[in-house]
Specification:
Helix content: over 70%
Order of helices and strands: HHHHHHH
Radius of gyration: 23 Å
Structural class: mainly alpha
Largest sheet: none
Shape: elongated
Number of domains: 1
Oligomer: single chain
Number of strands: 0
Length: about 180
């Protein structure tokens, strides 16, 4: 009899702790809003094109030394600005993905949730590799090549696609949330 009572208590307790689909999506929305708030300032005030144009203003295109110095300075500027953004984005993305991983999804979205977390983890794991590749660039061409070779764009799109899948489920369930999928 005592075992039966313990089993009933455990079942009732487990039922009370189950995350409803509404609670799940509210948790995801809250995490997404916190991520957006953390990453919004990352690119505020950063305009590489304008900064490069400002560098070029005083360069005499007929002076090979000035042109060479411009390209060296432009490479350093691109690397520095990108590294700052990626460094801070890495911290915010890691916190966001860890928060997602800590959410216990209801069975109705368990597979989609697992895929989203997996894709987020892959993106976070790639950021330091991309930063290292960009840091190794010696020229703007090297920088552009390293950026083009990085899987960050693809991984980011896959993560966003998973988010859109979750948003579609929420919409289909009539749950009014905005997951902020990119």
């Amino acid at each position: 009899m005592r075992r039966l009572l313990i089993a009933i208590v455990l079942v009732v307790a487990a039922c009370g702790q189950a995350t409803t689909i509404d609670e799940y999506f509210m948790d995801i929305e809250s995490a997404a809003q916190d991520f957006d708030a953390a990453t919004e300032p990352l690119t505020a005030g950063v305009d590489l094109d304008s900064d490069l144009a400002a560098l070029a203003e005083n360069v005499d295109p007929n002076d090979p030394e000035q042109v060479a110095q411009f390209f060296e300075d432009a490479t350093d500027l691109a690397k520095t600005q990108t590294d700052i953004i990626l460094s801070e984005a890495e911290v915010a993305a890691a916190a966001f993905v860890a928060r997602l991983a800590g959410i216990d999804p209801p069975n109705a979205v368990a597979d989609e949730h697992a895929t989203t977390v997996q894709r987020g983890e892959a993106l976070v794991e790639e950021i330091p590799r991309t930063r290292a590749s960009l840091d190794a660039a010696q020229t703007l061409d090297d920088f552009a090549d390293a950026l083009a070779a990085s899987p960050i764009g693809r991984l980011s799109e896959e993560f966003s696609a998973s988010c859109r899948d979750l948003q579609a489920i929420a919409d289909g369930e009539g749950i009014a949330v905005d997951l902020g999928c990119g």
